[in-house]
Amino acid sequence: MKKIYAMMVLLSLSLTAFAQGGRDLYEKYSDQPGISAVYISPAMFRLIGKIPDMELQDESVNLTPLIKSMSGFYILSTEDRATSESLYADVKKFVKSGRYELLMETKDDGQVLRMYTVGNEKTVESFVMVTKEDSEVSVISFDGKMDREQMENILAEAAR
């Protein structure tokens, strides 16, 4: 019984190790050579939230509520083969932690794009998009309490 309890504790610790996903990846890779990194803080989102409504060009999608709901935004990109393989492997690890749900996947002539979310039927708490083509890998991740329907509408408009 003690072994089962110990294994459950280790399993839960391993799952929480990936709990922050994008932030953890950013902290691990942002200072490495060959990595382009962007971080937008909650303070910036509060500042942006004071700006009037922003809409996508030629679309009726209002981005302001989505932006106001974000609490962190991370972008990592690299063309270095060794770094891209490591980054891609780490993204796959935290996505497979069981928290993330595949939202969309496209594959075209060696290029792969996957979008994942964490949340429930009404709210998205985390979003991850990873693209891979040859030795180039890019990861975009953001956290917050975003309305799922609104976010999915924005993604659908962007995919057109």
How would you describe this protein?
- The protein has one domain.
- It has helices spanning 2-17, 22-29, 42-48, 64-68, 81-95, 148-159, and strands at residues 35-40, 70-78, 101-108, 111-119, 123-133, 136-147.
- Residues 1-19 have low confidence and may be disordered.
- It has a 6-stranded antiparallel beta sheet.
- It has 160 residues and is α+β, with helices and mostly antiparallel strands.
- A hairpin with a 2-residue loop joins strand 3 and strand 4 (111-119).
Itemize the secondary structure elements and their pairings.
Layout: H1 2-17, H2 22-29, E1 35-40, H3 42-48, H4 64-68, E2 70-78, H5 81-95, E3 101-108, E4 111-119, E5 123-133, E6 136-147, H6 148-159
Antiparallel strand pairs: 1-2, 2-6, 3-4, 4-5, 5-6
What is shown here, in short?
The chain is of the alpha+beta class. The protein is built from 6 helices and 6 strands.
Give the assembly state of these chains: single chain
Give the DSSP E fraction (strand runs of 2 or more residues): 25-35%
Report the sheet with the most strands, covering strand number, pairing sense and barrel closure.
6 strands, antiparallel
Q: How many independent structural domains?
A: 1
Cross-sheet strand order for the largest sheet: 1-2-6-5-4-3
Overall outline: globular
- Cα separation of the termini: 54 Å
Query: What is the number of helices?
Result: 6
**What is the N-to-C succession of helices and strands?**
HHEHHEHEEEEH
Which spans of ≥5 residues are poorly predicted at pLDDT below 50? 1-19
**Mean of all residue-level pLDDT scores:** 78
Radius of gyration: 17 Å
Number of strands: 6
Proportion of residues in helical segments: 25-40%
Secondary structure category: alpha+beta
